[in-house]
Amino acid sequence: MRVVVVGGGIGGLALGAGLRAGGHEVVVFDRDTDVAATGGYHITLDERALAALDGLVAARTMRRLLASASALRLRERDVFWDYRGRVLGYGPDLSASGSVDVDRITLRTLLAEAVGEDLRLGRAVTGVDTDQDGRPRVGFGDGTSVSADLVVGADGTHSVIAAHLAAGPTSRPAGIIGFSGRTPRAALTAAEQQRLGARSTMGIGPRGAALYVGFLDPVGNAALDAPELSASVTTGPTYIWGAMFPESARTAALRELTGPALRTALLDRFRHHRWAEHTLQVIARADPDSVAAFRFNAASTRAADLAPWAAGRVTALGDAVHATPPTAGMGAGAAIRDAADLRDHLDGVPEALVPEAIGRYEERMRRRGAEVLTAAMKTVRLILATDSPLGAPATAALCPLIAAVTRLRLPARGAGR
Ligand SMILES: Cc1cc2nc3c(=O)[nH]c(=O)nc-3n(C[C@H](O)[C@H](O)[C@H](O)COP(=O)(O)OP(=O)(O)OC[C@H]3O[C@@H](n4cnc5c(N)ncnc54)[C@H](O)[C@@H]3O)c2cc1C
């Protein structure tokens, strides 16, 4: 069977690698000209995503990925802060976690290597239709086209393929705008290194300002101790942070800025919302070239609303169908699980029965998408609630109370696991 995959991001490359390994004829088209020119942040892959990936790529690729990844089991519990730096609570014990964090660039590069010559870069797809033999056909900006037995839209949030199938966009802005950046741990004062620790933290405050700080150490905390296999772009303990604000004309204007100007403007926004100065050091000392904006798009959290089309020879996966804000760290994992599931549904299926197999795959994908969207939207709604007329004063009043209760209940936990 000949499969055309539109989009060589996380899900499309995972599918391409799996189909190629399974003996299918596959070609993956991406508009990018360089797979490493992708976001500088990290991706969390949970055990389900890793198991799916294990079934799609060769054992050596999996070992290289784990040797390049930071193991959550080696991290301390996550901490939740308020805008003044007061501890509000702790996340679960991670010592038995099988999840890993990996640079997005590393993950995409390893997957692209697994797809090899079947990945075609610099090829932006402009549409999909049906050729004279009734087969699906994708078209490119230069007027050329390619037919296949199956077309899979893995072209992300603003998918051309899924929008064609759904006769409209499959997601909409979630109401939050995000900015990410990287700060080497060594760039922080000793006190701030101690406060942030070897863990991920989430800070919230009134008016929808939030700051996630993820800890990535693929060398010291490697998931697989095999430095000779590592392809990590992060070479020392690093905080990768995400600043979030409700979308407004003022926060949208930040998207026009880059580098040091954007970093300064972000600090100003947090100061305006009365964040304690030490909580902002991680932004103030970030590599200015790493600071970038990203928009949160979200599809519906209801499975019945996802992939609203009849199954056929054109389908889609990942963010193209269930665009997921990064607030649960599950979007890429879901795209990989879609890819594994689709590959399994196509295995050994006679060509004539492909639409039925796609129907079964899409049913499972709808449920998977709804699950990750529900998890991600909980945090989005919480952040937006702190921006409401009641939510803003309530957040300011409740934060010190929750912090006081946390101090009384968990006096010893701040320092360690
Ligand atoms: C800051 C941030 C942090 C995140 N953290 C996590 C995390 O920790 N864990 C997690 O699981 N998820 C995370 N996510 C979400 C995750 O990145 C996405 O859910 C995931 O990448 C979706 O994979 P995908 O393959 O569906 O789409 P993408 O990875 O977005 O890939 C889509 C690809 O399609 C290509 N493309 C688009 N249009 C065309 C076209 N017309 N023609 C050809 N090519 C096209 C694009 O160039 C791109 O390469 C994060 C996202 C952000 C922004």
From TrEMBL:
SUPFAM superfamilies: FAD/NAD(P)-binding domain
Source organism, top-level taxon: Bacteria
The keyword Ribonucleoprotein appears for this protein: no
Keywords: FAD, Flavoprotein, Monooxygenase, Oxidoreductase
Signal peptide extent: none
Residues covered by the FAD-binding domain: 2-167, 289-374
PANTHER family for the chain: FAD-BINDING DOMAIN-CONTAINING PROTEIN (PTHR47178:SF6), MONOOXYGENASE, FAD-BINDING (PTHR47178)
Protein name: FAD-dependent oxidoreductase
Organism: Actinokineospora guangxiensis
Native organism taxonomy: Bacteria, Bacillati, Actinomycetota, Actinomycetes, Pseudonocardiales
